[in-house]
Every structure is written in structure tokens, then in C-alpha cells.
Amino acid sequence: MTDLREPEHDIRDDDEGLSKETFENVTKAIDADDGQRLDTLLEPMHAADVADLIEQLTPVRRRAFLDLYSGEIDGDILSEIDESIRDEVVEQLPHDVLADAVREMDTDDVVDLIEDLEEPEQQVVLAALDDSDRAAVEQSLTYPEYSAGRLMQSETVTAPEHWTVGETIDFLRQEDWLPDQFYHVILVDPRRHPTGYVTLGKLLSSRRNVPLRDICEDSFRTIPAREDEGEVAYVFNKYHLISAPVVDDDDRLVGVITIDDAMSVLDEEHEEDFLRMARVSDESHVSDGPFQTARQRLPWLVINLFTASLSALVISLFEGTVERLVILAALMPIVASTGGIAGTQSLAVAVRALATRELTSANARRVIVRELFAGMLNGLGLAVLLGLAGTFILGSPGIGLVLGMAMIANQIVAAMGGVLVPLTLSRLGLDPALASGTFVTTMTDVMGFFAFLGLASWILL
Amino acid sequence: MTDLREPEHDIRDDDEGLSKETFENVTKAIDADDGQRLDTLLEPMHAADVADLIEQLTPVRRRAFLDLYSGEIDGDILSEIDESIRDEVVEQLPHDVLADAVREMDTDDVVDLIEDLEEPEQQVVLAALDDSDRAAVEQSLTYPEYSAGRLMQSETVTAPEHWTVGETIDFLRQEDWLPDQFYHVILVDPRRHPTGYVTLGKLLSSRRNVPLRDICEDSFRTIPAREDEGEVAYVFNKYHLISAPVVDDDDRLVGVITIDDAMSVLDEEHEEDFLRMARVSDESHVSDGPFQTARQRLPWLVINLFTASLSALVISLFEGTVERLVILAALMPIVASTGGIAGTQSLAVAVRALATRELTSANARRVIVRELFAGMLNGLGLAVLLGLAGTFILGSPGIGLVLGMAMIANQIVAAMGGVLVPLTLSRLGLDPALASGTFVTTMTDVMGFFAFLGLASWILL
Questions:
Q1: Domain-located, residue B311
Q2: B303 and B429 belong to one structural domain
Q3: Which of A202, A364, B216, B351 has its CA 20 to 30 A from that of B382?
Q4: Is A372 among the domain residues?
Q5: Closest to A441 (Cα-Cα) out of B411, B347, B441, B409
Q6: A-contacting residues of B 174-193, CB under 8 Å?
Q7: Quick count: other Cβ atoms within 10 Å of Cβ A67?
Q8: Residue A177, pLDDT score
Q9: What are the φ and ψ backbone dihedral angles of A370, each rounded to 5 degrees?
Q10: Run of H or E residues at A187
């Protein structure tokens, strides 16, 4: 059911998390240079909320804040801070604070941090780590950006296949280096190939003499370290994984990815698609200044100047027609803009379906035919409305006929373009969310003006 | 970095999951009425892939498939089938198969299933459950749709606050009703108020005599059963929760939500926003037929006919101007369409920022001012290009001037509309993703034509 009310999109000031009041108190404390007050205000806050606060400060206040508070920035806060301002924050941290912070972090968070830093800060971070963590981070960095290898944490909890529940529990009790969060014990053979895993729930609820092999999960999948992170998020969501072992090219265990990281990636991938469809860089942030914002948006606007010039060119072919029947100038945007909406609709469905693998080469033909018919149907429906409007409001059945016929043609172009353009881009290995919109609306604009003015020249003059 | 290549959006036939080959073999088996071959093909497949397959079949083949295979449909497959075709599938299942399937399911999956069913099928499902599960499902259904109470599973693993690790493990070993997946033991007081939780990892790695209180997680949050599910997904993602206790109005524990369900909700909410921004119902599916597709899209197209008529009205005010200088008709869509793009850019950033709480009343003014300046900057940039084009390509500095001035005005309207419209809708408690696009593009169209033709009348004639 379409639910118009969406409480989760409200502006919430009474919400848990960062309240307007807290935000104002913090800015007052910053402006008053009152470090002690800042400590009192921030002490009870969750690291994620402190990070939000830092992001929402103006750049000037942010620097003042860090002067006062940088000693308290720990690994938790640092891993929560958005990439867009992270290097700015790290540069301002004293090296000992940065070193302390990264020592607390899991290796996957260190990798995430170090990726975006400049060389000198990278060296500070690496130097702060103990040898095994540094080796793990350096190992992760050998995998491509946005791959499973970058996302994984190298701390894994494993057991030989032949162990029992009791042996495993005794082993876990002895260890003092266990990761903060783990959900499975991974069974490995002597060459560290993962062969299955046992959930902690099963381990806790089974008797000590039960062999691990008997309580393994039925469904077990490993993730190649070179897999794209978007694919990882998709697999976690589809198969309801909680954690999954990551393996290298020789199928040996090199790390583990947990669902919270997969969920962040899913969130980012969606955000990226959403913004790309609207022709905005996925690096846009609310904290950006006006110059940054303008620069990020200008390229697509300039591209649109060129595509709009194509429409202008088409219209100029019919200057004589417009001169003789000037009402056409007023009516022509109707066909073009309704085509643009229909194209965007068809496109959005296709882009989502490609992302979720619901649109595959197995059913592409059926979907294309479906779009063709849906476009014809809506074209007919809109044509009837326009025919009536032309006849009874404008008093010209001829104009109604031209509007209607042009609309049918353009709705078909819109529906077909909306599915064929993203399919083509996808086959070429390009992201269909990025450029499809421009292609499709150019098609519907050009077709809208051409069909309407062309038919008008033919029928009305 | 903007990464043009997005392998995860490719059409993958060699992927794990449902391959084109399997799909074709299955359709052949269906067409040959070969139930045994179907069993062989589907036996090794994951429930999620079987569900995908069922969704991708044409309606006619789907019925034939269910005639052959319905005996094998179990709870796992049933919970994976998309809502859009789920009632169709359930109606075709023999009642005993349906009853067996639901008995295997967790209560949250049963709730998810039963919500969409017709009364007679609901009764079959409820009758199949044992008493405690039925009570749990009925309890869940008393909470509003899309609330935490609908999302939670009622099976919880709890321990009194005063227990030790050893007592807890002994208790877990005795129990035979433990949920399939659980990640925490929730501590409750004698009145079933949750007071903290212990991860299974901590439980396994601590000695038997350690009190649970000493190994509780620092950060603990409960979720009210009436909370909106979108809010739940947001909180899980922000605070990296793995599972969270759900409480009723008296703060008593009634269930638990796990991150895999929160991840599905996050995915759905993003999909909904993505489709709504493109003016498509979030009930659109690749499996829909042409009539369904056309009907879902027509309403926004009809609305667009009306808003486009507004533009037509504005243009018709300047018929005299266009008649005297017909090139204006060709040029006028440039200003309007570039404004539309800019408005959509500004809007998309604002809608995302509202959804992620990055845009709040604390920083709304700063963002509005930012947009105003960014709009002016891009307006100026585009105006320079248009001025040059007018002078050197069209040979008319006057037309260049008019184009440029109109562009500046419309870029400002676009940038401001893109942020003010969603902020206003959000304050009214409406979903900004749903209707903002129509408001904003109507504003930029009307302003684009009005400013361009108005300035042209004033300056050029």
C-alpha cells in the first residue's frame, strides 16, 4: 500500500541521537572556548552521534572544536566520521591521539580510514599498529578498492574440523585476542581452506562432546577477496548471511565480512544510485560549501545545455509552422515533458531491476515487450484526454488529434528508451544509473517536439 | 571517486544464483510436464534462488510450475517469495503444504506472510500454528503495519540479571526451542524489562563463574514496538546493532529484531524512495504485466498533463512576442530544461539528507543559503556560456543576454525549490520523495518560460 505519511522522514528534534538543543549547546561551548563544558556535553553521547555533530558543524567551528576536543577523539568516533571530512579531521589530530585511536580499531576500520588519507598520515597510522595488525592492513590494501578484501576484518575465529564443542569453548576461553564481534566459528582444514561454519548459538546450546561437523550450517558460502563490495552486499541481503569467510585466489581463509559492514555498503550503493539518477555526484554532502556544490553539479548542467540545443535545433526546423500557428509554441512542451516523465518511470524500474538481478537476459525480451505495450496503452489514454481537451477547450479537433498522435509516439519512445538504454549501458559494463537519464530525456524531448511539430505541419497547415 | 564501471550492475549469467541455463532448463521441464526433472534441477538450489525463479516465470508457467512442484514449497521458499506474487502462490498451494510450510517459519516470517493474505488463507495459516506461535503472531498483528512489532520475532533468549556464564550455558543446553538465529542473551528483571545484553562471543569466551552483569555490552538500546520500521533500519545502520530487544508500551520485552530483517527494510525503503522520486509506485515489479504497469504509471502522467498545461498557459501569454520573433520558441526549452535538471539535483541531495537526518532544523538555514549561492554561481556560469553562444552562434548579443538572465533567475528558483519543497513536505509529515519532483519541475518550467519570454518582450522588442 502506498503510505503517504512517512514519519521516518520528518525533521525530528525530539529524537534520540543528536538533538537541536545539544547541537546549540555544543556550538555555544565552542564559541565560548569552553573545553570542560564540551566534555560534559559529549561524554554521554554515542560515537556515531559525536561524528554526526562534527559533520554538521561549519568548517570554522569544526576547527575550533578540534582544537578544544581532539584529545577525546577515539577509534570509535574516527571510524564513524564521514569520508567527506575525515582527512580534514585527521590532519588536525595530534599524532599521538591518532595513534591511540587506530590501535583500538578493527583492521577493517583502519583500512577504511587509511584509504582516504594522505601519505604522511598513512605512515602515522601504520606506525601506530602492532606488527600483526599492520601486516593485516597492508594485506587488505593489496586488494582493489571497493573489493571484499578491503571490507573484511582479518581477525577470524577458526577451529579444526575434527574439534568438539567442548574443545572449541575451552579454546575460546583461553584466547585473549578475540574480535569485538563474531558470530560464527569457521571450520578450516589443515591448509586453512574454510569448509563450513557453526553459529555461536548452536555452539552454546550443544553438549560438549558433540563434534563441530555435526552442527555445521547447511548453507555455506565463501566470498572471493576480489569480489566487488556491491556484490557482497547483494549476497548478504539475498541469502540472509550474518558473516561470511573471505578467501584468497587459492581459496584460503584471509578474513571475514560481517553483516553490519555489508549493510553500510548496501546503504552507500543505494545512495549512489539515487544521486546518480538525479545527476548528482555521490560525493555530495550536506556539509559542502556553495562553491563545492556548484562545481559538483555544473558538468551535468552544461551537458544539458548541449542536449537542449538539440531540441532547439529540431524546433527551429519548424519555425515556419510555428510562425503560422503560434499556439503550437505554447502546446509543444506538453508532449515533450510528459514523455520525459514516462521515460524516467520506465528507466527507474529498469535500473532497480538490473541492480537486484530481477532483469536478466532471461527475461529482458519479455520486459521490453511489456514496456512497449504499457507505453502504447498510456499513450492512448493520454491521447484521448488531449483529443478531448483540444476539441472542447481549444475548440480545435485538429490540434487535439495532433497532440494525441504525438503523445502516443512519444510514450512509446519513452517506454522503450527507458528500458533499452540502461540494458545497453549495463551490457557495456557501465553503470546504468549514471548516464541513462540524459539519454532518455534527450530522446523524449527531441521526439516530443519533432512528432508534435511534424504532425502539425502535415495535418494542420 | 566516481567509478564509471560498476560490475555489480552487469547482467551476469555466469553468476552464482539463478543462471540463464538453469532458468531455461526449468522452463523446458515445466513445458514438458516433467516433475521429476524439476525436482532434480531445483534440489541443489538455495530457497532464495527458487523464489527468484518463481518470480521470473510468466504467470501461465508459474501456475504450471506450482501444479508440478507445490508439494516441495517449504517455509524457506515461501518467506523468500516477493509480496507481489505471494498471494497468487499461496492460493495455489494445497492446504496441508501451506500448513507444513508455516510451521517451520519463525513468527516474524509468518507475520510478514499473513499480512498480505486473504481471510481464508489467513485462517489456514493460523490454524496450522501451535498455540504459542499463534498467540505470538496474533500479538504482532495488533501493532501497526510497518512497525517494529510486525518486524520482530517473538522468540527471545533471556536470562535473569543475576545469572553467571555457567548457569546461562547450562540453561541454553537444556532448551530445545531456541530460535534458528540469535546473537545476544537479553538480561531481564523479574518484570521482564530488558536491562542489558551479552553477546554470544563474550559468553563463549568468559569463564563459567563470571556474572553476566560484568560482560554486558556498554551500549544498549531497546526499540518501542510501535516504532516505524524505517526508523528501526536507520538505528541499526547508524549504531551497528546486530539485534535489539523490542518492548511494549510498559517497556516489557515482547520480541527481538535481528539485523538481517533491518537490512531488508533498509533495502526496501531505499527502493521506495528511488522509485517515488521517478514517480513510480513502489509496487512496481518486473513480473507485472503491461496493463498493471500502465495503470501504475498513468496517474503521474495525467498530473503532468495538468502541470504542463500551466507552462502552456504562461507561454500563451507571450504569443505576440513569439509571433514577432519565432526563434524564441526554439530557444525557450533550454532555460526550462536546464532548470529542471538543477532542481532535481538540489532536490535529490535534500531528500537523501532528510532521510539520513543530515538535514535537520539545526542546519536547514545554512543549507538553504548554500543552495541559493550555488544556484547563483551555476546560473552565472551557464549565463556566460549562453551569452557567448547567443553572440557568436546566433549573432545576437541581445538573445544571449536574455537567455543568460533568464537562466540565472531559473537556476536560483531551481536550487531554492529543490530544498524548500522537500523541507516543507517533511514538516507537514509527508514523504518528500513522493511529490517534490512534480512541484519543483513545475516551478522551473513555469519560471523558465516566464523569465525567458518576459525578458525577451522587454529587451528584444
A1: yes
A2: yes
A3: B351
A4: yes
A5: B441
A6: 175, 178-179, 181-183
A7: 12
A8: 80
A9: -60, -45
A10: strand A184-188
Q: At what angle do helices A364-392 and A327-355 cross, to 10 degrees?
A: 160
For residue A386 the three cell numbers come to 488531449
Place of cell 518528500: B432
State residue A228 phi and psi, 5-degree precision.
Answer: -65, 140
β-strand partners of B104: none
Residues A262/B263, Cβ–Cβ less than 8 Å: yes
B358 to A239: CB separation less than 8 angstroms, yes or no? no
Partner residues linked to A153 by β-bridges: A256
Q: Any idea what the CATH number is for the domain that residue B319 is in?
A: 1.10.357.20
pLDDT over 60 (residue B421): yes
C-alpha cell at A453: 511539430
The alpha-carbon gap from B397 to the nearest alpha carbon of chain A, in Å, equals 17
> Given this model, what pLDDT does residue B88 score?
86
pLDDT one-digit tens code per residue, B69-87: 888 899 999 999 988 888 8
B214 shares contact with chain A (CB less than 8 Å):
no
CA–CA dist A424, A366 (Å, integer): 16
The CATH number covering residue A207 comes to: 3.10.580.10
Residue matched to cell numbers 483540444: A390
Total of domains in chain A: 3
Interface pTM, i.e. ipTM: 0.90
Using alpha carbons, select from A385, A394, A384, A306 the residue that is nearest to residue B312: A394
Q: Report yes or no on A195 lying in a domain.
A: yes
Is A374–B273 a contact, with Cβ atoms under 8 angstroms apart?
Answer: no
Contact B388, B363 (CB under 8 A): no
CB atoms inside a 10 Å sphere around CB A23: 20
Amino acid B16: pLDDT = 58
Q: Residue B188 pairs with which residues in a beta bridge?
A: B160, B194
Cell, residue A186: 569457521
Q: Which of A374, A377, A301, A375 is nearest to A339 (CA)?
A: A375
B77 min Cα distance to partner chain A (Å): 12
Residue with the bigger pLDDT between A432 and B8: it is: A432
Q: B231 lies in which domain range?
A: 158-277
